[in-house]
Structure formats: C-alpha cells, structure tokens
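Task: sequence design from structure.
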C-alpha cells in the first residue's frame, strides 16, 4: 500500500513528546490529514510506524552491544597482558633505600618463568648511570636474572656490578637455580646488595640464598664480592 504524502511529518508528530502542535503548522496539517485516513489505512500506518520504531531500537541495541563488546575485548586483552607481566619473573618483595638503591629483592621462580625475562630498558639504564660513582666497567646487573624471568624494566631489580662479579654471580646463583627449576622445582630466590655507608649507591658485595618449596637449599648463602674496577 502506498504511504500518503505527509507520512514523515506525521511520524514526527506522533513520535514527539511534550510538543505543542499548531493546527496551521506542517505537523498540524499532517495530523489533520491523518484523521482523513480510513481505519484500515490508519491501522496500516501505525503498524509501519511500530515496525520502524522496533527496527530503530534493535539497531541501537546492536550498536550498543558492539561497543560494549569492543570495551570488553579491550579489558580482557589488558588483563591478559597484565597477567603475563606478572607471570614473567614474579618479584614478590623488594626494598629500596637511598637514591632508590636496591636493598633487597625476592622472587618465586617456576618453570614457566625460565627464559622469559626482559632486557635492561632505558629507564633502568638511566637509573644505573645515576648509581655508579666509580667502576667504568660496571654493568646494570639484574639481581633476578633474565634467564630466571627477571625484569629489566624495573629499577628495583637493577644494581651496578662489575663484569667479573657478574660471571661469579651467574655461576653461584643463576646456574644452580636454573638447573633446579628446569628439573621441576619451584625456587624462592632472595638477594641482598650490601653497601659501605648509608649513602653509598654501589654495592660492595651481594649475598643470596635460594630454597625449594620443601626447604632444600639450592643456593646456600652465596657471597659475591663486587670491588670497583678502574
């Protein structure tokens, strides 16, 4: 059935709320024109108006649902990324001191952490340069090593260490833990950088111990000296 002239205007009249319609206005004329429709034509008009309204509501709901789906997906992805960050080299405790120097760091290392750590980032490099007063051969050492899932982007895992000391640290601390965790153990590693004076920022030595869940020692109070190098 052909919809008569004034259809869109009539639709606006009947869908509006609280508007005063002047009889001489286009809306008023359209409304008057609608009264001349026969009952079947009026019924058909209202039927099409109802269908159009329902379609509009459905479309709006689809758009809202699509928007909500996008937001939900973003939240899920962010949460998943956060869980991955937490799973990589999960440091469970740490303490900092003067100028942000690391006084203590602790991590629980499982097989899922092996070889998942991050490289030393720019922020950590800047922090390292601030701490080093002498020893041009020092490197920014990750106290929870990268191979054990240690982060290289957080300053609470970075301390100045000379290259020779870093070799001993790997041999005494990192390698035994890597071997134990590779064998299925979960190991808790604790590291204490030691300083000479309350305002020193370069450790003179590192003390570390690591134990399995059953209390078995993996690293038994290891000490790695860290003398400055010219």
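Answer:
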């Amino acid at each position: 059935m052909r919809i008569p002239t004034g259809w869109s205007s009539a639709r606006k009249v009947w869908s509006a709320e609280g508007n005063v319609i002047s009889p001489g206005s286009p809306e008023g004329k359209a409304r008057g024109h609608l009264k001349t429709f026969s009952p079947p034509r009026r019924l058909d008009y209202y039927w099409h108006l109802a269908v159009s309204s329902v379609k509009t509501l459905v479309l709006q709901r689809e758009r809202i649902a699509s928007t909500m789906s996008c937001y939900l997906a973003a939240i899920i992805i962010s949460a998943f990324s956060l869980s991955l960050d937490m799973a990589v080299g999960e440091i469970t405790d740490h303490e900092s001191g003067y100028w942000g120097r690391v006084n203590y760091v602790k991590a629980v290392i499982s097989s899922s952490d092996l070889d998942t750590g991050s490289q030393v980032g720019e922020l950590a490099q800047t922090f390292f340069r601030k701490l080093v007063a002498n020893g041009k051969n020092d490197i920014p050492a990750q106290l929870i090593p990268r191979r054990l899932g240690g982060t290289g982007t957080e300053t609470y895992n970075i301390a100045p260490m000379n290259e020779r000391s870093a070799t001993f640290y790997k041999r005494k601390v990192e390698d035994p833990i890597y071997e134990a965790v590779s064998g299925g153990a979960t190991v808790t590693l604790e590291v204490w950088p030691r300083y000479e004076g309350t305002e020193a920022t370069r450790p003179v030595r590192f003390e570390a111990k690591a134990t399995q869940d059953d209390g078995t020692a993996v690293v038994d109070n290891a000490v790695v000296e860290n003398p400055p190098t010219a």
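The chain has five helices and seven strands.
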